[in-house]
């Protein structure tokens, strides 16, 4: 590095100490160890100076290990109350009752009395969680209603009206009929398993069915988003966003949070194009368990779906997907260290490369940030392409790809534009292939 007059005070000294440390340890500057960095700085500010100078003037120095040191400083800083969010670990099945009981503390008393029956119901834990979350959402709206929280036809009707119209004064946004039906479904499950009076339960069911019918005949909100996607080129738009994030990660210094987010987003997109999993499952995958890398560089994916409890086996992922997963795994380190890095991170979450996971919605938020679509919409896009490409076997393939127990469940994942934009796109692609 040439001496420059505009270097900040101490820059030459701290970079010199880093290279002295590398020489003492006989390490290559492309992949310095944590110990090499620790020997070069004495405080957080000095570490920050070292990273800024290296990123600007000595970009060939690998800064991946320094990113971990910076994160430790961030974690150790005291946080003001209410600031910063951390991922909540998944609740174990045996801890479900305390978790739900704590969540129900703000519910009306009559609803709390029905909760034990729901917790003892012979249904999957994931289903109980969804019902409790729906009931909790409904309980938050009780103060804005003009009727008492007695479960039945009247309460269901007033709740549905409030959810449809919204309530700006209380910060309540309008929601779609299908979503209203889902919320009311949680109350129906609470009443069914909690042995609510039959007349009241039937009234609640009737209101829910009414909203369900409205939802079936109304246009889904995602259709507008998918129309825009197909008009912009379908998967081409997603691949362009993926390539842009890969390039962005390559341009940014490996020690920055922006670099970490860019490579994480590119990895999420690469996997979801290959295998469009649910965002909650994506957030929880671990290296060496669900995601496995072989010594020859092949990545495989096999995991248990949180929603259904069924195993999903994607098998070997595409080589292009594996290359992007390697870039994410290496986090700026030389490619020759990919399998060594994988061995070091066995058992770690694949996105954070640590013990904690991201919040379940984080993968979808990153997909939407760069494509305008939530990750869930990619499942519909994948189903559209399968139907257009292999109509005779599409039903079974869609069920397998999306992790459904039946072919009928996959019918929900069909866009209005699948038979037009998607079909014509596939026909054009196949025609070009035939001509070549």
Automatic annotation (TrEMBL):
Look up keyword Transferase and say if it applies.
no
Hey, what's the signal peptide range on this chain? none
Gene Ontology biological-process entries: DNA integration; DNA recombination
Q: Give the UniProt keywords, A-Z.
A: DNA recombination
| Name of the protein in its database record | Tyr recombinase domain-containing protein
Any coiled-coil ranges, and where?
Answer: none
Q: Name one GO molecular function term.
A: DNA binding
Give the originating organism. Pontivivens ytuae
Q: List the InterPro entries.
A: DNA_brk_join_enz, Integrase-like_cat_sf
Q: What SUPFAM superfamilies does the annotation carry?
A: DNA breaking-rejoining enzymes
């Amino acid at each position: 590095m040439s001496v420059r007059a505009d270097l900040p005070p101490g820059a030459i000294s701290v970079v010199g100490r880093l290279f002295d440390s590398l020489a003492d340890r006989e390490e290559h500057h492309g992949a310095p160890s944590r110990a090499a960095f620790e020997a070069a700085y004495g405080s957080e500010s000095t570490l920050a100076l070292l990273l800024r100078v290296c990123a600007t003037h000595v970009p060939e120095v690998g800064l991946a290990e320094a990113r971990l040191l910076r994160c430790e400083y961030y974690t150790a800083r005291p946080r003001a109350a209410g600031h910063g969010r951390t991922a909540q670990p998944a609740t174990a099945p045996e801890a479900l009752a305390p978790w739900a009981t704590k969540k129900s503390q703000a519910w009306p008393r009559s609803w709390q009395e029905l909760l034990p029956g729901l917790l003892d119901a012979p249904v999957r834990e994931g289903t109980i969680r969804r019902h409790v979350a729906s009931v909790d959402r409904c309980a938050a709206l009780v103060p804005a209603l003009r009727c008492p929280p007695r479960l039945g036809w009247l309460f269901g009707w007033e709740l549905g009206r409030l959810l449809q119209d919204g309530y700006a004064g209380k910060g309540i946004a309008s929601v779609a009929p299908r979503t209203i039906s889902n919320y009311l479904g949680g109350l129906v499950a609470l009443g069914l398993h909690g042995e609510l009076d039959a007349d009241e339960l039937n009234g609640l069911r009737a209101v829910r069915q009414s909203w369900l019918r409205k939802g079936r005949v109304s246009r889904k909100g995602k259709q507008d988003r998918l129309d825009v996607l197909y008009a912009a080129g379908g998967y081409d738009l997603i691949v362009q966003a993926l390539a842009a994030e890969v390039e962005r990660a390559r341009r940014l210094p490996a020690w920055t949070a922006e670099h970490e987010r860019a490579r994480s987003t590119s990895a999420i997109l690469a996997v979801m194009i290959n295998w469009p999993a649910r965002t909650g499952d994506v957030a929880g995958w671990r290296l060496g368990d669900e995601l496995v890398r072989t010594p020859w560089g092949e990545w495989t994916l096999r995991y248990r779906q949180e929603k259904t409890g069924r195993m999903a086996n994607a098998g070997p992922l595409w080589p292009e997907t594996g290359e992007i997963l390697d870039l994410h795994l290496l986090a700026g380190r030389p490619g020759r260290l990919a399998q060594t890095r994988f061995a070091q991170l066995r058992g770690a979450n694949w996105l954070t490369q640590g013990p904690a996971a991201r919040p379940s919605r984080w993968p979808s938020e990153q997909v939407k940030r760069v494509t305008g679509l939530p990750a869930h919409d990619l499942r519909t896009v994948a189903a559209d392409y399968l139907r257009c490409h292999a109509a005779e076997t599409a039903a079974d393939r869609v069920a397998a790809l999306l992790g459904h127990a039946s072919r009928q469940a996959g019918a929900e994942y069909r866009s209005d534009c699948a038979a037009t934009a998607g079909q014509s796109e596939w026909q054009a692609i196949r025609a070009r292939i035939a001509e070549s």
